[in-house]
């Protein structure tokens, strides 16, 4: 290793007419210079490799970030579309709810009319839809929404609303028909003799064959006799028009009312007539007073029912009491 301490001379001979250059370098410098150059080269290679790797990593990260941004943009777009769909569903449900409320109001109005026509006075039960939430304690088990999502629930609710709407569309005409039928029934009931013509319920002689109270012979009795006190009110058994109001030796003061549809009623032996021929009378209206005029043994009402001009037994027609006006 003695050569490391030695000095070496390098002679550079240029072209003609130029001086010769000499450089003296130690042996150690000759060894260190290549080693330093090699280290610098290796260092440069390492730096280049690290830079290249960092550049590739940065490019990959940039790609992943771009891909993630695209995915998030897509998700945001899907979320926005889902929110818009839910808003549309909620708007549709709100419109359906308003429509249901209107139809239910129509149904309730028809129900009230039917109850009024039928004389029903019952308190309706409280429905859940009429309750209002107020401040106070709350509780209960937390359950997941049916169907797994709000969208599924909205769709299911919409289907239920549509089904209810179809049912209501079917119910409304039926209720209208029922209302018309009730009105027709009420009208028919109004002109059908169904109430007692007196306050008294004391029947003294039935319809049909009986022994005549004056002669003792078997004769035909064309009505029923209802006992009472002179001056008791006599009521029209149904709406109608007075077609006869007279006084004769046999029937005494008597009144006949035409109720339409071939039905008439007659009231005999009155002490006083209030209704005259042509008067329109209402069911339960006073038309005279009970008495014993004509061929009579005592105060009573002889009551007759005519169907197409023929007397029939009044008993099946007396089914109700008179309602106070």
Automatic annotation (TrEMBL):
InterPro entries the record matches: Cell_wall_metabolism_enzyme, Dup_hybrid_motif, M23ase_b-sheet_dom
Domain of life per record: Bacteria
Residue ranges constituting the M23ase beta-sheet core domain according to the UniProt record: 220-314
Protein's UniProt keywords contain Nucleotidyltransferase: no
Transmembrane segments: 28-51
Pfam family name, one: Peptidase_M23
Coiled-coil segments on the chain, per record: 83-120
Gene3D superfamilies, per database record: Glucose Permease (Domain IIA)
GO molecular function: metalloendopeptidase activity
Keywords: Coiled coil, Membrane, Transmembrane, Transmembrane helix
The name this protein goes by in its record: Peptidoglycan DD-metalloendopeptidase family protein
Taxonomic source organism: Paenibacillus arenilitoris
